[in-house]
Amino acid sequence: MVDPLQELRDVATAALAPVEGELLLPGLREPVEVLRDAWGIPYVTASSQEDLWFAQGVVHASERLFQIDLTLRAASGRLSEWFSELTLPADRFARTVGFARIGAAEAERWSDASRAMMRRFVEGVHAWTRTMPSPPLEYGLLAIAPELPEDLGSWAAAFAYVAWGLSGNWGHELLRVHLADRLGAETADTLLPPVGPADGPRDEQGALDVPAGSLSGRLLDGLPRSNGQGSNAWAIAGAHTSSGAPLLANDPHLLAQQPAAWFEIHLSAPGYRARGVAFPFAPGIAIGTTAHHAWGLTNVSGDVQDLYVERLDASGTSAEFDGAWEPLRTHEETIGIRGGDPVTLQVRESRHGPLLEWSTVGVAGNEFAPLEETYALRWTAADGLVEPETLVGIVRATSFEEFRQSLRGLACPGQNVVYADVEGTIAYQCTGRFPIRRSGDGTVPVPGWTSQHEWEGWIPFERLPWAMDPKAGSVVTANNRNHDAAYPHLIGRDFHAPFRARRITDELAASSSWSVETAGRLQVDTVSLPARRILPRLLETTPKGEDARWALEALRAWDGDLRPDSVAAALYEVWVGTLAEALLHAEADRDTFDRYFAWREAFACSALPELLERTEPGGRARADVLEASLDAALDVLRERLGSNRDGWRWGALHRVRFAHPLARLPGLGALFVAAEHELGGDEQTVLQGGIDARLGFDALVVPSWRVVVDLGDLDRSMAVLTTGQSGNPASTHWNDQAPLWAGGELRPCPFTRPAVEAAAKDSLRLLPG
Fold first, then answer.
1. Within a 10 A sphere around the Cβ of 136, how many other Cβ atoms?
2. Taking a C-beta distance cutoff of 8 angstroms, is the pair 65, 140 a contact?
3. pTM of the prediction?
4. Which whole-number Å values give the CA distances from 530 to 22, 361, 752, in the listed order?
5. CA 718-719-725 angle, 5° bins
6. Cα–Cα distance between 40 and 666 in angstroms, integer?
7. Backbone phi, then psi, for 763, in 5-degree steps?
8. Which residue of 181, 350, 533, 700 is surrounded by the most CB atoms within 10 Å?
9. pLDDT tens, 473-507?
């Protein structure tokens, strides 16, 4: 009997890229060498940068063609041409925000050098589609053919699409409005105070003003910190390492996905040599290492989005501004629907940006809810994204000052850039465009019919936060507030809570002999500082029954480490959820609760500990809620994991699944699910394992790549991807790194030519065709 899955694997095998011998390619000017190591990481050597970008396009497409195609379609709002009405809401949203329109304008702004660089990469992708042995399996399953655009605007739109997931804070503004509508403006103002300097790193004793004896009177003390998923990066000076040279560590946090979010590659040509990770749809190295320096990135979580409430005329074709009516710009967007009639969408824009009709819901951002007000979105991406030649300047720099100046081309999304070099320098630079507002702080929507709330330019690059060789001997960034209270400019109010940064900083200060191995272990640290703060208050609960007594004893012996094998960690995490439901009266207004608690960081890291610290320990309201919510947590664990307490591990609840988008098709899970693991940590442990609390405990946000660079010997550097290098399920590199990633391990990253040659397992020559 024929095995259907084996037949599909055979089709996927036919599409595998050649890794040995020679490959003729039209458009290539000189021969290019492509070596690959045991993990399938390519090492590309060209005689010119023009051929290097072309070859990079060939190599990316040979491993990730469908991923590239899918990203470009998502950015252009063309998914429904493949997936019919299933993806119409996503296409409608993409067309409204205008990723494609932003991309077209961005490509026009690019310098000649950037356009040439991007053009050669795109030519390389198309050269592969003309010479590939067979289309990737996905095309056959969907009965479609590869159809990648030629125009650079469509490729620039992918930068806008990525920037959207790392930008803020329009969703927070909507949350504040929603709470005001449901609870009243005065209550909402009390529940969601502006996040000022005190909400950054501060003394552990800081607390909100909660009435004594009241546990639920404040309802929602705190707010989500950022729509950006997060990341950690740090550099350690040589005085604190075992080698005497700096170390740099980075683990960008993104939504779990398959294929991996990044394409790992080593690129070499005259004037350019770097190793690291690239966007699958773009040339150059985004995060990486040169012979002179290394750099890592985390999201700034700055406020680069504002909502304006627009006052329209009766016809809905003009918006009021300073007493006059300004005609709206309109864009007719036609969305093709597979198997159905096209859908025409009229997108309207005011002077501030597109008028939104839908908001996103949840951590993944793939659910949509209708808006009741007329909001226009002002987003810095409309004024600039990423200049591709910036990625060349970053590599060519020979000092931190040169490196720093090269970062001016990173406009959106704003990134915290951590730096270390072979000369011993460690440093930090904030990048991005952050608006200077005529009035207001960007935390709530503002009237669009008056000029009082207009943007008046950007914080000058020279005035963005930066540091070089700090006395502490380390620089640390984990999406926390990146400046002190004396900083005179407003970057944002919605930074992530500071606990990951604190944990890293505390650990770095505790040793002066850091190595690649010990830094790698810190990247997978699962100690929760919020849990350590909350736990003593939870332990004041009076148990009612044997199960509650057992639970409190388990928690009393717990050290706050959210290891996947920890029963106490599962008790704590589930109890936090049932406490939230009780304190926030979830059943009275489930919609409001879900909107707030989906991103539960604010509650778990800020509101809950401060509520518990400020209420009277002996208060009856507090005791009743703690006792009832503990019983509810035990009920959840019994329902989810059975009656055997030994099976109540945090990892049994908190799992991560790396699944291809087509894994949801019936019968294809065995082929397209690359890995599934139990995972420790949560939103504010160094090992990120963020969840959407509406949906359960599965980890959605995780480290997308972990790397530690040794500036004393670059060949000692190590890294790991989430699953593997290849996007082809028939490849041995589809998920060969998954066990390392799950086990907290790293693999070698050879950099120098002798080390690369020693590691090479395959050799392919690309020849002009």
1. 26
2. no
3. 0.94
4. 56, 26, 43
5. 135
6. 30
7. -140, 125
8. 350
9. 999 999 999 999 899 999 998 888 899 999 999 99
